[in-house]
Amino acid sequence: MKIRSVYPIRYVAQQTGLSTHVIRVWEKRYKAVVPQRTESNRRMYCERDVQRLKMLKTAVKVGHSISQIAGLSAEELMQLVNLDGPDAPEVSPAREPGSLDSAYFYGRSLSAVLNFDAQGLESVLDRAAVHLSKMELIKAVIGPLCRKIGELWEQGKLKVINEHMTSSIIHSFLWNMLRSAEVSETSPKIIIATPAGHQHELGALSIAIVACESDWQSLYFGPGLPAEEIAAAVAYADARAVALSITYYENSHQLNLEIKKLRRYLGDEITIFIGGQGAMSLVDSFDAAEIQLLKDVDSFRIALNNLRKLQEG
After folding, report:
1. Residue 210: how many CB atoms within 10 A of its CB?
2. According to the model, what pLDDT value does residue 242 have?
3. Which pLDDT score, from 0 to 100, does residue 232 have?
4. Which domain holds residue 138?
5. How many CB atoms neighbour CB 145 within 10 A?
């Protein structure tokens, strides 16, 4: 009797070129595949699941929507991805440019926000996760989109409900991406949060994902965390660094006090990274020995890599 081989999600991601985040979303939202579960509730995929995901990825890349094709049979998918097949099922791909780059996904995302199209925004972000790397997705789509939404809201050109819808969807998208990130258990740990008085957390979620991409274990603790709580998290987790996101310039006096307290609680051995549009308000209050101000996600990755080399050297 032949025993059917089954594989964990990491293997499936390697074989298909899909991220574990995308695989989980396609499974949960569209029932694209239904993996087996172990007694400990781990997903296990058979070879048929792997081949199905490969075909789905191919179909999505040529313009088909995953929501339209997820329910197709294996035979129908095979016909769909065979461009010369005369019997392909009638699933109309969206009219899209030949090169689906970050500018395209940014434009489609912004259009969905302005049209209050929650399902459209979710769909665009899901497709972007297939076509773009995580870094490109954050740098060129999510980051610019959040900034643009903030600008339009401040100018009175966007309703609060549009901003809330966008924040909710992006928060869920980033959180799912962070949960699906796989990092070595021996990698150094970093605490991610926003300081007390700062409730905008999309930037913090983004840098948590960037840290994972740099092979750091991101421990995300959410918005509005007082200095003493951040310091306690560092001690409990034996973390090597802290990264704070400050989206807006708010109450610089209180922010300075929080950062000074945190620096005092942590001592000199723990590095504090601070980024976001509001971070530049700290430039005249702290020197490079106290905190590292970050210009963008690229500078954060470089700083993490340098810190790791320094600590391991």
Report:
1. 25
2. 96
3. 96
4. 102-179
5. 23
